[in-house]
Amino acid sequence: MSAALECLRADGVYECIRMTVQDLAYAGYLPLAFQYGFVINALLCAFLIGPLLGAVGTMVVTKRMAFFSQAVGNAAMTGVAIGVLLGESYTEPYISMFAFCILFGLILNYTKNRTSISSDTLIGVFLSISLAVGASLLLFVSARVNTHILEAVLFGSVLTVSDTDMNVLLVVSVIVLAIGIPLFNKMLLASLNPSLAHARRVPVKLLEYIFVLMITLLTVACLKIVGAVLVEALLLIPAAAARNIVTSMKGFVFWSIAFSTVSCIAGVMIPMQFDLPLPSGGAIIMVAASIFAFTTLLRMTLSRFRQAEA
What we know:
- With 310 residues, this protein is an all-alpha fold.
- The chain has a single domain (38-305), classed as ABC transporter involved in vitamin B12 uptake, BtuC, CATH 1.10.3470.
- The chain contains 14 helices and no strands.
- Helix 3 (37-62) crosses helix 12, helix 4 (66-85) crosses helix 5 (94-114) and helix 13 crosses helix 14 (280-301).
- It is globular.
- It starts with a helix and ends in a 9-residue tail after the last helix.
């Protein structure tokens, strides 16, 4: 116990975890991949984002906001370009990414509530504008940094996860849990039956803005491990896979969290174990897609799963 406390004081929590896991790997108790610090960093992130994205993904599917989360993820690229132009570090431009994506999400939701344009059309317009601005700014950014480094933001990379990234993810996780757990039932009611929610004096519009903020914070925090292009898929696919086999909301949330967590951990470990040249984001989504295909097959072939929610 005293050795552990001394380690914490000298090196910090993350370094102590890395040293402990590496010692177990050197002793042969864990796979050889755990000898590398970046693998441990990626797994720590996977244990955080798996359950969170799985839980929030159930609301994304219920509220039919999959396209919105994709728009926010792609808008992060514009935030990176703005941050680099303003002098932020190109490896950790969190201030510009959070600021731009939050502003993007809030303005998009505000416009949706004030116009009669359908949601998918409006999101497509905002997404197109954001990508156009981002592509234009990248021409200026390329003069300052190697644009190949930005691929880590687009597709995710376990090699680029730092202690700062883990701190950001941890803080965002705490914020999302602190907001989401007390409000989950009200958000669910507001998404399933807005009229009933209004009758029960549930602040439907306010909860919608809160949910937009939750998705935005999670999306930006997960970029380094999953990637801007694919974070929306991890919100959607595990929840869709769970919906194939469950008949209750409790089961929906549980299996979505389980599928998302397994996808994150397997997606990080499989390329390392088999020396596959795959980005972590792509590997995670392929595992999730395999789970979705399996649950779809179960639903089609076994009668007891045909009563699951459509």
